[in-house]
Amino acid sequence: MTSHKSPLKLPVIHLKKHQIFTIALGVIIFLGLTKDLLHAYLKGYSFYFSESILFNVLWVLYIPYTALQAHQLKKVKRHHIGFLFLSAFLCYALHLLSFTSIVFLFSKAFFSQAYSFASSFSYALPESLILSCVIYLTNGFLHINRRQDIQAPPSKEYITSLSVTNHGHTELIHTEHILYVLSKTPYISIITPSKTHIYNSSLRALLAKVDPSIFIQIHKTSIINIKQVTSCKSRKNGDYDVQMSNGDIVRLSRNYSTSFKKLFFT
């Protein structure tokens, strides 16, 4: 007999934001210290732990400033390529300003010799320029794309035809040929230029399936195809008479007149 072993399932680890931040901070500092230690060993000079920690702030600052960039991009409704570059430039400028300020203040407070703004800047610029361009531009680009994916409403496909069955005979009706629809509970009457069809549905159900820029409800008992309307005449009481392309008159209730006018007079 052959035994079947169940596949090995790896545990799923769920981390909170502060845990992710702590891990990222630890990894950045560890890599920075390792780089400085190897560089000191290869070049043959002394390694100072406190100075290495201080100058590794340059890499730690990517964490808050990428988060700041993402937060600011959320506030902007429309993005373009110029804004992406501007956000990257501003974040990097603040990044450098923060780094030089931190190095100057901490070295002045705790070291025997303070590092000036100029010396910190001359170190940080060549060390971080290319990497910062990549990080801030990529962060901005990914955030904009992710935001657009979230905001983009799912495109809804509307029906273009209906299958109507009468007395065992099924007929396909294209929605563009429908003039108007009347409620005849529990059915609806679909009026086309050639005939009237009985369809097993409700006005509300049909209205949810057809294109709202073409089909509009003008009364609690009727829907019209706005493209099949030839004229509209007031009844002097807030209601209107809507004439269809076949000459039929359909009543437009004052309660539905606003949405009708938006489509008909544009």
Secondary-structure blueprint:
Elements (H helix, E strand, L loop, with lengths): L16 H27 L5 H7 L1 H4 L1 H13 L6 H30 L6 H35 L9 E6 L2 E6 L5 E5 L2 E5 L4 E4 L3 H5 L7 E5 L2 E4 L3 E6 L5 E5 L4 E4 L4 H8 L2
Antiparallel strand pairs: 1-2, 3-4, 3-7, 4-5, 6-7, 8-9, 9-10
Helix pairs in contact: 4-5, 4-6, 5-6
The largest beta-sheet arranges its strands as: 5-4-3-7-6
Overall, the morphology is rod-shaped
Q: Provide mean pLDDT, rounded.
A: 84
Q: Point out poorly predicted stretches.
A: none
Total separate domains? 2
The DSSP helix count reads 8
- Give the helix proportion (percent range): 40-55%
Number of strands: 10
User: What is the H/E order?
Assistant: HHHHHHEEEEEHEEEEEH
What are the salient characteristics of this protein?
48% helix, OB fold (Dihydrolipoamide Acetyltransferase, E2P), 5-stranded antiparallel β-sheet, 2 domains, 19% strand, single chain, 3-stranded antiparallel β-sheet, alpha+beta, rod-shaped, 266 residues
Question: What does this 3D model show about the protein?
Answer:
The protein is α+β, with helices and mostly antiparallel strands and 266 residues long. The chain has two domains: 17-151, no CATH class; 161-264, OB fold (Dihydrolipoamide Acetyltransferase, E2P) (Beta Barrel), CATH 2.40.50. It has helices at residues 17-43, 49-55, 57-60, 62-74, 81-110, 117-151, 203-207, 257-264, and strands at residues 161-166, 169-174, 180-184, 187-191, 196-199, 215-219, 222-225, 229-234, 240-244, 249-252. Strand 3 and strand 4 (187-191) form a beta hairpin. Helix 4 packs antiparallel against helix 5 (81-110), helix 4 (62-74) packs across helix 6 and helix 5 (81-110) packs antiparallel against helix 6 (117-151). The longest helix is centred in the middle third of the chain and has 35 residues, at 117-151. The mean pLDDT is 84.
